[in-house]
């Protein structure tokens, strides 16, 4: 466990990875605010213009905690943080691989990046359920009203962060 914290400390002590993690976390949180209030934001924009719509969005952003269940808010924060950590660790590992083996090239690095990225997308891909015809109304039939899916996403993201941190510690580099 100490090694995990050392890897995270090493990666996030670098400004570019810390800034990217914060940015990704804020973007993910913002997307959730926009998706939840999309029709309100569009209506407000049409009625009041861009500047007031931006102010309205900032109010929604800051007050989003009040509009959803506390457990949903906590899981959203946890998923935002874990997702941003995962993306930053993936970027770090991709750069580490590229520096250690110049022969991999652009397409190899892109393939590795996308291959590592897949577990993160599976964990946060709950928004894709609507593509498969499953609406949010289905979540109301679950015993904890969809909180189970958030917990599953947190566990998968946590495992992904742990796994990639472990790989970074061991400097595991797969030859293609």
Write the SSE topology.
Elements: H1 2-12, H2 15-36, H3 38-48, H4 50-67, H5 70-100, H6 105-124, H7 147-170
Short description:
The protein is mainly alpha-helical.
Count of separate structural domains: 1
Q: From N to C, what is the helix and strand string? A: HHHHHHH
Briefly note the structural class of the backbone: mainly alpha
Number of strands: 0
Largest sheet: none
Uncertain parts: 107-133, 172-176
How far is it from the N-terminal to the C-terminal residue, by CA?
30 Å
**What fraction of residues sit in β-strands?**
under 5%
Query: What's the total helix number?
Result: 7
Overall body shape: globular
Helix content estimate: over 70%
Radius of gyration, in angstroms, nearest whole number = 19 Å
The average pLDDT value, as a whole number, equals 75
Explain this structure.
The chain is mostly helical and 176 residues long. The protein has one domain (2-36, 68-170). The chain is built from 7 helices and no strands. It has helices at residues 2-12, 15-36, 38-48, 50-67, 70-100, 105-124, 147-170. Helix 1 crosses helix 7, helix 5 (70-100) runs antiparallel to helix 6 (105-124) and helix 6 packs antiparallel against helix 7 (147-170). The protein is globular and about 55 Å long.
């Amino acid at each position: 466990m100490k090694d995990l914290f050392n890897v995270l400390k090493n990666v996030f002590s670098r400004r570019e990875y810390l800034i990217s993690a914060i940015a990704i976390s804020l973007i993910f949180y913002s997307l959730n605010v926009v998706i939840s209030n999309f029709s309100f934001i569009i209506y407000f924009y049409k009625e009041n213009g861009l500047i007031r719509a931006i102010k309205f969005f900032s109010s929604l952003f800051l007050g989003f905690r009040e509009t959803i269940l506390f457990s949903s808010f906590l899981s959203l924060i946890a998923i935002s943080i874990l997702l941003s950590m995962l993306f930053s660790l993936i970027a770090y590992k991709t750069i580490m691989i590229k520096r250690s083996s110049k022969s991999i090239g652009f397409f190899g690095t892109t393939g590795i990046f996308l291959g590592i990225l897949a577990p993160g997308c599976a964990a946060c891909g709950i928004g894709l359920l609507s593509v498969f015809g499953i609406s949010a109304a289905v979540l109301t039939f679950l015993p904890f009203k969809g909180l189970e899916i958030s917990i599953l996403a947190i566990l998968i993201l946590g495992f992904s962060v742990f796994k990639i941190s472990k790989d970074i510690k061991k400097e595991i580099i797969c030859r293609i």
